[in-house]
Design goal:
alpha+beta; Tumour Suppressor Smad4; seven-stranded mixed β-sheet; disordered C terminus; about 20% helix
């Protein structure tokens, strides 16, 4: 006789009444049990695995049931992974919410009656059903959906219609987080100028397309003009290449802040972008008079990292840096002014420590001590000759030097020195003085020679800075010798060397800024105006620059770090400044108008942040 499984599937009706009975036959020596639709016995319960167990005939009227690896079945109240069953003993097997009752069938077959129990032990109906005894999930979905609609759409809509005088809603304003600053207001309707990619934070390329200095400067200016900017954008670069800035910037303090920063960088929202510090679309603290007016002249500046956070342990993150770790003012490196070591068309500069007594080659022989002595001959001459110029007193620093922000206005010989140092070298027939031109050596030569020099390119022509007596007519030779000899018009101030009958004059180049990586400003009241005391507690020039003891123009009269530390690095109560002096007093993050430097060599130009952007909050 054939061995097969005769199945009776009994399903209870939802509304009660007689159950539904379905019968079918499974031929063969085995049958599979599980949730999958391809099983011989399908048990539609999420607690049942897709293939949960298998039945096999082991003899006439006898079967074995074996659960899949790691699973069990309940046989006569006991959970076992495998069991041998005799249909004659009418065993009962439970799998999840289903009961399988075995009994002898026709011939050697077995009848299996499958019934699903409404048993509280099985959570499938309540977990995966939308119905609930108390508050159905379908009703909860409607309630929450209606609440969101009411709170997030209907209430704001009614509020706008009720309180807004013009009763209008501008759809684009619902997405804007605020107006742009005055500097960027012309981009108000051109969002793609900054937001190049949807759902991507503003990238530095968008900012640098208008603000990149260096070789890209002309293109940046053209880009801003093309975009319709009414202003000329400030061209700046970072004070180091971007990859080194990222590597040298530490993660913020605190575990949470570190995790947040790492996640932001991972998802394409880094915290070291231009827009991380310069924030547009800032919301007003109070309602402006004109709601459509820009809030500020420039984007709001938010300091993400101060100078000390990066420079305190910079060598730990950038082992190849030439910079010294500077956690505070007390460990600030000594000043190394940039001095000229060789003059000429292409002058050479070198940073030299003040402790080594550096000397610069500027082409002059000006002695400060002689001019600053209030009892010397220069003072008496200034008193007499200066009356016509409007001062008539001994010279001080302000007589020649005029501060202009971080530097000085260039010295002009005719204006600053001409009162005492005359350029006259002869008289005309009518008794008037003949004056030498100043500033171009060739014009001086032409004037002294009476314009009798050899034609340009001729054999008698010499290179600039070299003059021979043979170049002059007899009438001009004596004037030439007197002009470039001791006591002559040019000899008193310029470095002149005679080599036989050839005279050589060193080119003049005056240094405007000895500390180009700083931003010392002579014009602020705390430092004092040149030649004046300034406000109470301000310095005079002589307090920092020891010109009274200098006999050589090559002396570098820059104060050392100790002089600056008398104020900087001290509490506010000990200095005359209105706020604490920090790194940004002299150093700026961005460098205006210069290309990004090579690693370890910051650019030479810098400005205070207060000259470039708004003050940081709380400063």
């Amino acid at each position: 006789m054939a061995q097969d499984f005769q199945l009776k599937l009994i399903t209870e009706r939802a509304g009660g009444g007689d159950p539904i009975v379905r019968e079918r036959r499974v031929e063969g020596p085995q049958a599979s049990i599980g949730r999958g639709a391809d099983n011989d016995i399908v048990l539609a319960d999420l607690s049942v695995d897709p293939i949960h167990a298998r039945l096999r005939f082991t003899g006439p009227g006898r079967v074995s049931i074996e659960a899949a690896t790691g699973l069990t079945v309940e046989v006569n109240g006991k959970a076992v992974p495998r069991a041998d069953l005799s249909a004659a003993s009418r065993p009962v097997v439970r799998i999840a919410s289903y009961t399988l009752a075995f009994e002898p069938g026709e011939g050697e077959g077995v009848v299996i009656t499958v019934t699903r129990e409404a048993d509280e032990r099985h959570l499938t109906p309540s977990v995966f059903s939308l119905q609930s005894r108390v508050f159905g999930r379908r009703n909860m979905a409607w309630a929450f959906g209606s609440g969101i609609f009411l709170v997030c759409l209907l209430v704001p809509l009614l509020a706008v219609l009720w309180f807004n005088e013009n009763k209008l809603i501008h759809p684009d304003e619902q997405w804007s987080s605020g107006p742009l600053s005055t500097a960027h207001a012309f981009l108000e309707s051109d969002c793609k100028s900054c937001h190049a990619n949807a759902f991507v934070a503003v990238r530095d390329d968008a900012c640098l397309s208008c603000h990149q200095a260096g070789e890209s400067g002309p293109k940046a200016l053209a880009r801003a003009k093309e975009a319709g900017s009414p202003f000329q954008p400030l061209l700046v670069v970072d004070h180091a290449p971007r990859e080194r800035l990222s590597k040298g910037t530490p993660l913020p303090d605190g575990i949470g802040a570190k995790i947040s920063t790492v996640i932001q960088r991972a998802v394409g929202h880094p915290t070291d972008r231009c827009a991380s510090c310069h924030i547009e679309h800032t919301k007003p603290t109070a309602k402006p008079v004109d709601a459509a007016a820009p809030l500020t002249d420039k984007p709001t500046l938010v300091v993400v990292n101060d100078c000390q956070s990066c420079h305190a342990r910079l060598k730990m993150r950038l082992s190849d840096t030439e910079l010294v770790d500077t956690p505070d003012w007390n460990r600030h490196p000594a000043f190394k002014p940039l001095i000229m070591t060789a003059a000429g068309p292409k002058p050479q500069f070198q940073r030299v420590a003040l402790t080594s007594g550096p000397q610069e080659r500027n082409g002059l022989t000006f002695p400060h001590r002689m001019h600053m002595d209030p009892r010397g001959g220069v003072a008496r001459q200034a008193i007499e000759l200066g009356k016509a110029a409007g001062y008539g007193s001994p010279l001080d620093c302000g007589s020649c030097h005029e501060a202009k922000g971080v530097g000085f206005r260039p010295i002009e010989m005719e204006k600053d020195c001409g009162t005492c140092h005359s350029l006259a070298y002869a008289r005309n027939a009518d008794g008037s003085l003949k004056l030498l031109p100043h500033g171009e050596l060739q014009k001086v030569v032409d004037t002294l020679a009476g314009r009798t020099l050899a034609a340009p390119g001729g054999a008698g022509r010499e290179r600039p800075g070299t003059i021979r007596p043979t170049m002059f007519a007899a009438s001009g030779a004596s004037a030439y010798r007197a002009t470039f000899s001791p006591g002559g018009t040019c000899y008193d101030c310029h470095s002149i060397n005679w080599e036989g009958d050839v005279v050589k004059m060193a080119p003049v180049k005056l240094t405007q800024r000895y500390m180009p990586r700083g931003a010392f400003d002579h014009s602020i009241a705390e430092h004092g105006a040149l030649g004046k005391t300034g406000k109470a507690g301000a310095f005079k020039c002589a307090d920092c620059h020891k010109a009274q003891t200098s006999d050589r123009a090559s002396d570098v009269l820059v104060p050392d770090l100790a002089k600056c530390s008398t104020c900087h690095g001290q509490p506010t109560s000990k200095i005359a400044a209105a706020d604490d002096a920090d790194c940004t007093t002299c150093h700026a993050f961005h460098q205006p108008g210069e290309a990004t430097p090579k690693p370890g060599h910051p650019p030479l130009n810098t400005l205070r942040w207060t000259q470039m952007m708004s003050r940081r909050p709380g400063a």
